[in-house]
Amino acid sequence: MFDALRISGSGMTLHRKYLDAVSDNIANINTAAAPDQEAFKERFIVAQAVDYGSGTGGVRVAGAAFGSGEGKLVYSPDNPLADDEGYVRLPDIDLGTQMTNLLIAQRGYQANISAISRATDAYQAALSLGKNL
């Protein structure tokens, strides 16, 4: 009877972790590194479906994956991390893509909240049926 709540709860957890990853990517979009060092790598959440036949259902966070881009060299001679030629390494992260991912994660979270609300209403309606007998 409470499967809908458990499944939607797992979806909320997944989308919260997704929001965390995207927020981290946006926060570090301008994090500079020395040209000979690795730039910040974009973080992704790996989701895995949980088999409904196992009695739980829903999704779970299977882990995190990181982008493979080595970053981009940007001329910034005033940066304390710049090399002798004035270059620093910035992450190769697209802000437009991150904003899209942010909206997707937010909408997924909201959809799971709505599903929990509907399931709660249905359970309350079922309980009130017994009161009228």
TrEMBL record:
One of its GO terms (biological process) is bacterial-type flagellum-dependent swarming motility. Residues 86-129 form the Flagellar basal-body/hook protein C-terminal domain. InterPro entries: Flag_bb_rod_N (IPR001444), Flagellar_basal_body_rod_CS (IPR019776), Flg_bb/hook_C_dom (IPR010930). Signal peptide: none annotated. SUPFAM superfamilies: Phase 1 flagellin (SSF64518). GO terms for cellular component: bacterial-type flagellum. PROSITE patterns: FLAGELLA_BB_ROD. Coiled coil: none annotated. Keywords: Cell projection, Cilium, Flagellum. Residues 5-32 form the Flagellar basal body rod protein N-terminal domain. Belongs to the flagella basal body rod proteins family. This is Flagellar basal-body rod protein FlgC.
